[in-house]
Amino acid sequence: MAIDISKYESTIKPGQKPADKSFGVKLMELMNKDIQLFGTNLNDKKKERFFSDLHMLLSSGIDFKSALELIVEEQKKKAERELFEKIKNEITNGSSLSEAMQASGKFSSYEYFNIQIGEGTGRLNQVLKELAKYYEGKINQKRQFVSTLTYPCIVL
Hints:
The chain is mostly helical. Helix content is 69%, strand content 0%. The chain is built from seven helices and no strands. It has helices spanning 21-32, 44-59, 64-74, 78-92, 97-104, 109-121, 124-155.
């Protein structure tokens, strides 16, 4: 459970100007930033987005190749676009999604084996949804941890 500060009323009265509005905005941006040190893997937000988008596209009846093409097109960074393009090409050439993910080296064995089980049981769509929920929870837990530590650090 994350702390949602949007539910609380502002202490600034109507007509009163806050001292520095940008400080609160910058603090919230810092608290929501996904920090990754020395990692070569995709960050959790990208993985959550990938699994969520792939689940949604496959659920709507779009074929696998078209779904991956749409995911490739929405990538803004060149490295991520190349990664998803490589995965799409591997699958087009006959590999399974789990094999393509393992070959890329950017996904953990947890993700690889979950996808492999989903492919084997015919429940890939449900596995993608569960992986997206897993990463969403992981991201929220990180945010809660950072926000919990932020206040004591500011006070100190």
